[in-house]
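Late entry, evening session. Most of the bench is empty. Finally got around to the prediction I had been postponing all week. Sequence below, unchanged from the version circulated by S.P.
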Amino acid sequence: MSGTETGGAAAGGPSVDPKLLEILVCPITKRQLSYDREAGELISETARLAFPIRDGVPIMLVDEARSLDAEPDATDKVMP
């Protein structure tokens, strides 16, 4: 499964059932999500949203998602 990590929880990151990760898709785009274990989120690059995972349960509500557009892109950083 490309772009998706499975396995145990990292320090501070919630554990999510790998089978669940295989079937979950973005509720807006219907495309596959990537798992950011460190942040405890499922990422939809197309919709530019990060869906939280609470107590091992992905919260797939658009109202609960964090916008990725608010974050500076690595290519936008100015080097001194």
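Two things to note before I forget:
Residues 14 and 56 are 5 Å apart (CA to CA).
The longest strand covers residues 49-54.
Will write this up properly tomorrow.
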